[in-house]
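Weekly sync, protein design subgroup
Attendees: M.S., D.O., the rotation student, P.L. (late)

Item 1: inverse folding check
M.S. brought a backbone from last month's batch and wanted to see whether the design step gives back something sensible before we order anything. D.O. pointed out we never logged the input encoding, so this time it goes straight into the notes. Structure tokens as presented (366 positions):
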């Protein structure tokens, strides 16, 4: 009986010690995760980094837009810990320059960045028409599904765009597609008095307001099955005298007839001056923050939209792998505050919300 009591006592002590050990391990693990969460921002939890899948981005750049295109890469890398792969189409002049700079950035980002470079490649038939359809080389994006057959999906962005939040958030929208959707874009505008298409277009376009193709999620597998590239040349030849926005207009014509193939994104994922220059016309960005800013019509480079110019200036001055993220946020805030008063400048809270939330920073206005 005594032996049994001793055995029970030993078993009780062992179980007690084990439970205390497990509790302390779980407790400190949770607190460690909370500490990481607080110190790096809600998207930068180190525990989750290994779970992030590779995000694939693409753009086309020719002529004088090298620096602008590099800021796209910089912005995508700054706000994420996911591996990012860029598929870039460029001319023979810019290719070696891009290759040299991006190889340095691979080292600076600890191999978070990877890339592949492709030369501009249009069909020989109507090659000059394609090359100069809108801005030089821009129409290359229409042929990507058949040029890049080893990739299933990518996010295409114009070179005058900047990410203000983690790119994997936008990548997740591929999972929102239904069985018929092969692409996602934001509307040109949802106000008939502002949107260009219902007022001026002389060709078919998507829905009531048309689509802006500056940010375009592309399920390349579905686009190939659809026969996307087979549509673009006949449409260009039929409408080339009536499509001032080039490849964007061709995309609108395709989705006019295949509306069920496109998923409509919020305007916060393609925020242009049209969303603020006449007053606040993107409620989602106002409440949740601007996620991706698009400096269309040279808004990053002229004085017409000083708030857009301020965001771009801060990004352009940031040194990847050297400057701290807080420096970027402080410069954004400073330059917007110092800029001339404008309707878009009045949206400074919306412009800074996502960057601040991403890094869990609190930067007071001064």
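Designed sequence read out in the meeting:
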């Amino acid at each position: 009986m005594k032996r049994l009591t001793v055995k029970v006592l030993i078993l009780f002590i062992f179980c007690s010690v084990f439970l205390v050990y497990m509790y302390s391990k779980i407790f400190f693990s949770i607190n460690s995760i909370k500490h990481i969460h607080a110190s790096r921002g809600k998207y930068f939890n180190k525990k989750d980094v290994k779970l992030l899948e590779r995000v694939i981005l693409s753009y086309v750049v020719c002529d004088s837009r090298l620096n602008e295109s590099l800021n796209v890469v910089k912005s995508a890398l700054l706000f994420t810990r996911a591996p990012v792969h860029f598929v870039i189409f460029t001319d023979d002049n810019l290719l070696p320059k891009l290759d040299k700079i991006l190889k340095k950035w691979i080292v600076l980002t600890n191999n978070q960045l990877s890339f592949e470079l492709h030369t501009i490649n249009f069909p020989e038939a109507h090659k000059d028409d394609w090359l100069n359809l809108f801005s030089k080389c821009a129409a290359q994006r229409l042929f990507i599904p058949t040029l890049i057959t080893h990739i299933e999906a990518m996010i295409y962005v114009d070179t005058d765009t900047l990410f203000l939040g983690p790119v994997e958030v936008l990548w997740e929208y591929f999972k929102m597609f239904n069985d018929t959707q092969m692409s996602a874009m934001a509307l040109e505008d949802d106000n008939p008095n502002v949107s260009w298409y219902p007022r001026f277009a002389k060709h078919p376009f998507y829905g009531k307001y048309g689509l802006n193709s500056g940010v375009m999620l592309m399920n390349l597998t579905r686009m190939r099955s659809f026969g996307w590239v087979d549509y673009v040349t006949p449409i260009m030849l039929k409408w080339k005298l009536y499509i001032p926005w080039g490849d964007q207009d061709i995309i609108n014509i395709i989705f006019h007839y295949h509306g069920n193939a496109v998923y409509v994104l919020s305007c916060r994922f393609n925020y242009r001056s049209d969303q603020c220059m006449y007053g606040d016309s993107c409620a989602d960005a106002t409440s949740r923050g601007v996620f991706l800013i698009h400096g269309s019509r040279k808004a990053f480079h002229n004085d017409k939209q000083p708030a857009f110019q301020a965001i771009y200036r801060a990004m352009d001055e940031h040194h990847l792998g050297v400057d701290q993220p807080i420096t970027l946020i402080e410069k954004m805030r400073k330059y917007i505050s110092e800029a001339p008063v404008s309707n878009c400048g009045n949206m400074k809270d919306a412009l800074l919300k996502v960057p601040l939330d991403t890094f869990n920073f609190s930067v007071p206005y001064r």
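Discussion: Residues 2-40 form the longest helix (39 residues). The beta strands are 55-61, 84-90, 113-119, 153-157, 161-163, 183-187, 211-219, 262-265, 292-294.
Action: P.L. to compare against the previous round before Friday.
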